[in-house]
Amino acid sequence: MDLSIVLPVMNECDNLRELIPRLNGLAQRLHLSHEIIVVDGGSTDGTQEAAEKLGWRVITERRRGYAGALETGFDEAHGDYILTLDADMSHEPDFVAKMWRARERSDIVIASRYVRGGTAYTSFVRNFTSRLLNLVLRRVLSLPVRDLSSGFRLYRREALANLHLTGRNFEVLEEILVIAYSRGFSVSEVPFTYFPRGSGRSHARLIRFGLDLTFSAIQLWKLRNSVESADYDERAFYSVIPLQRYWHRRRHRLITGWARGCSRILDIGCGSSISTQSLNNAIAMDISFAKLRFMQRYGLPVIQGSAAALPFHDRSFDCIVSSEVIEHINYEESLFGELWRVLMPGGTLIIGTPDYATLEWRIIEPIYGMLAPGGYRDKHITHYTREKLTGILNHYGFVHQHSEYVAGAELVMRWRKPAATESVSYSA
What we know:
The protein is an alpha/beta fold. It folds into two domains: about 5-225, Spore Coat Polysaccharide Biosynthesis Protein SpsA, Chain A (Alpha-Beta Complex), CATH 3.90.550; about 230-415, Vaccinia Virus protein VP39 (Rossmann fold, 3-Layer(aba) Sandwich). The chain has 14 helices and 16 strands. The protein has helices at about 15-30, 45-55, 65-75, 95-100, 125-140, 170-180, 205-225, 230-235, 240-260, 275-280, 290-295, 335-340, 360-370, 385-395; strands spanning about 5-10, 35-40, 60, 80-85, 110, 120, 155, 185-190, 195, 265-270, 280-285, 300-305, 315-325, 345-355, 400-405, 410-415. A seven-stranded mixed sheet has the order 3-2-1-4-7-5-8, sandwiched between helices. The chain has a seven-stranded mixed sheet with strand order 12-11-10-13-14-16-15, with helices on both faces. Strands 6-9 form a two-stranded parallel sheet. α10 links the parallel β10 (about 265-270) and β11. The longest helix has 19 residues, at about 205-225. The radius of gyration is 26 Å and the shape is elongated. About 45% of the residues are buried.
């Protein structure tokens, strides 16, 4: 099925008599196989009977509130895409055609009142409060979305899988976006003109909505700032924390400078790093599918794989980047043997890790953990020193070329795999 339309309702009998036929007509014009799922929150005005008379099933929400209605609809939907909109006619059904055409641009399409070209015809107080809430949330949650509270959305089915929502009411709209974006799904906005509802009375309470949203935002902020968020590395490059921003930009300069001119690059444990995005001819590899999904929007070839068993043939790359990876993995001989195997003779290895022998790192690590709770500090398993890492790479036959430090704490080294006819002399 192409499209599932989820309609949360509460006493919307008169509006459904107009809305459902218009949605049916739209689907026919777009040549879409579709279903309409009416999720009822306890209507007493004949809403259920009206929907059933129009030929569509009505399901009682399984959990009280707007969030429960959406969950119920998502669980019942069979379409490749899932559309949500209000049943009060404030969301113009004919606008769905524009959203459908925009579906190739992203995984979630939002009908937005607050992007250029969009507007909302409502009271000054409600308009001002809604804009202010969206502006604050956009900043707090670091989401590139202007209308986070719009419920008029088109979702690719995969973006809604395994959500496990905790919100109760309209704050669930922000929760869905944060979870989906943190899993690497993309979001775009289409300018939309909002008109007041048709008949009936609004069930939204702005003050209650604001309070629910505030409490929800605290929990969502933790997710957005954890390393589990797909865009964590990219955001760190632009961080408002000076130390974090400097760190990522210094590392970026070293890696991209040393990798210039290489024709085939593998970045192991790429995350959402700007360094990976800046490399020419690079393949991005990570164990996290969410981070690879995020990187795909930049047109990079991506592959999921383990550093301990690289999914490539011998001598496949003339440059390998392994930055901030090995400290997150239990030490295994195969980690370094794999680097040697897939690197071409004469190729470059760029490897970086915190140097636990330095005073600077022993001071910086606790500060980093305090400024970025849930960051990579808590994921460091194996502690390397320059002496230890040099010994390992010398053992495998790599030739040391250059070493630099980020803030005197993170060690970034450039090594070379010698040509077959080249004699090797070890260095520290």
